From TrEMBL:
This is Aldehyde dehydrogenase (Acceptor). It comes from Glycomyces sambucus. The active site is at E252. Keywords: Oxidoreductase. The keyword Oxidoreductase applies. GO terms for molecular function: oxidoreductase activity, acting on the aldehyde or oxo group of donors, NAD or NADP as acceptor. Signal peptide: none annotated. Residues 28-471 form the Aldehyde dehydrogenase domain. SUPFAM superfamilies: ALDH-like. Belongs to the aldehyde dehydrogenase family.
């Protein structure tokens, strides 16, 4: 067996000591600022201006001017050229963005390098192609943009969530005011620099770092649409805030996805899918397969192979290309994961964690597997948003569906079986916006994504995702 040798990333992006707000094509300062911390080392990466209500008002006014005078009247063909330019620039600076994302977020470089940045670029390429073809998207012969869009994104996929939001909005002729998460503003601010490099007209994209108050100000401002990805609690508050107004809203919220393994599933393939489903991005994924439902006849075999596989995962430096599980994004999130894990122990579930050394500095949590889990336990009902898997068993397919649907969420699910008929049978009955078959956590810009129940409403990506940014 070969000994493990670190493979550190050699590229280091030029991170400024301080970043301002990006309003009307320029970086400007604010009344206050805050620090952005590297979660793997707890070192301060940079300081950044914090937006307040006045800053939001300025950004919305700039976006409105740009919409009325430049971007709205511009032809779809010309708008598409800008999106193609952004996509190409993002590809050219892909490694720089990947390293910056790992530093600011804590996720492994192999994930940012191979998934986050390429998929973000893909969304700009894909939507650039739609910019002059909106009349053929199935939303009427003459779909019109909404105007100014307020967007609030989370910290788990900072650049990718930005692309999911900004690319379709711009393709449809809208202008944007976007608030990145307070713990991960770096790649959004680098994207603002990229917009300058692409000569995007001033005011078309505005980036306002800040905490929850800044996000609330964006929602309450004079925007025509609100797009939010984040927790169900905040999504519920946003829905109440805009109720009765003319603002359109899309919400992509939390999840507690079931990953169902039937007794005829390809076990080794399923184990890889289980690992990817819950340990990808440290479990900081809304659609993570955090509940594993295994048919009783193969449960022991699946668990044995799963533990063997999890024991090989490397936890550590996000900039090491061999790392599988990086740092938890923040001290607050680590505290929540720890609290819910202790709740699982307290409620009587059996916990297993592989032996691994964790770095002394930073926010870290071992990959965790709970067995003996009951439906009523908090670890089976609440979104942990960390590398924690709850394992339940079932005897019949009907019981699997009943247990999978026994959750207030409905974002995603997975089905593992060799029978296509069983896949279709299960997918028809699962109350989830996305159902993966013999795979998990697969995304494409051409495929719509979104949830049911408390996982939100609206779709992002694909032809269907355009509707949320059009007046149809």
């Amino acid at each position: 067996m070969f000994e493990y040798a670190p493979a550190p990333e050699s590229v280091r992006p030029q991170i400024k000591e301080h970043y301002g707000l990006f309003i009307d094509g320029e970086f400007v300062d604010a009344e206050s600022d805050f620090k952005s911390v590297n979660p793997a080392t707890e070192e301060v990466l940079f300081t950044v201006a914090e937006a307040d209500e006045a800053d939001v008002a300025k950004a919305v006014a700039a976006a409105r001017r740009a919409y009325e005078t430049v971007w709205g009247p511009m032809s779809g063909t010309e708008r598409g050229k800008y999106l193609f330019r952004i996509a190409r620039l993002l590809q050219e600076r892909a490694r720089e963005f990947a390293v910056a994302e790992s530093l600011d977020n804590g996720k492994p470089i192999k994930e940012t390098r191979d998934f986050d940045v390429p998929t973000a670029a893909q969304h700009f390429f894909y939507h650039a192609g739609w910019a002059d073809k909106l009349a053929y998207a199935g939303h009427g012969p003459d779909p019109r943009p909404l105007g100014v869009v307020g967007q609030v994104i989370p910290w788990n996929f900072p650049l990718l969530m930005l692309a999911w939001k900004i690319a379709p909005a711009l393709a449809c002729g809208n202008t944007v005011v976007l608030k990145p998460a307070e713990t991960t503003p770096l790649t959004a601010l680098m994207f603002a620099e990229l917009c300058q490099e692409a000569d995007l007209p001033p005011g078309v994209v505005n980036i306002l770092p800040g905490a929850g108050a800044a996000g609330a100000a964006v929602v309450d401002s004079a925007v025509d649409k609100v797009a939010f990805t984040g927790s169900t609690a905040v999504g519920r508050a946003i829905a109440k805030a805009v109720a009765g107004s003319e603002k359109k809203v899309t919400l992509e919220l939390g999840g507690k996805a079931a990953n169902i393994v039937f007794d005829d599933a390809p076990i080794d393939q399923a184990v890889e899918g289980i690992v990817n489903g819950i340990f990808f991005n440290q479990g900081h994924v809304c659609c993570a397969g955090s509940r594993l439902l295994v048919q009783e006849s193969v449960a022991d075999d699946v668990l044995e192979r799963l533990k063997e596989r999890v024991a090989t995962l490397r936890v550590g430096d996000p900039l090491d290309k061999n790392t599988d599980i990086g740092a938890i994004n923040s001290a607050a999130q680590l505290e929540r994961i720890t609290a819910l894990t202790e709740a699982g122990r307290g409620e009587g579930a059996d916990v297993w964690q592989p032996a691994c050394d964790l770095p002394e500095q930073g926010f870290w949590f071992r990959p965790t597997v709970f067995t003996g889990v009951q439906q009523s336990m908090r670890i089976a009902q609440e979104e942990i948003f960390g590398p924690v898997l709850s394992v339940l068993t079932f005897r019949t397919p009907d019981e699997a569906i009943a247990k999978a649907n026994n959750t207030p969420y409905g974002l995603s699910a997975g089905v593992w079986t060799e029978k296509g008929s069983k896949i279709l049978w299960a997918a028809e009955r699962l109350r989830a916006g996305v159902v993966w078959a013999n795979t998990f956590n697969r995304f494409d810009a051409a495929s719509p994504f979104g949830g049911l129940k408390e996982s939100g409403y609206g779709r992002e990506g694909g032809r269907q995702g355009l509707e949320a940014y059009l007046d149809v």
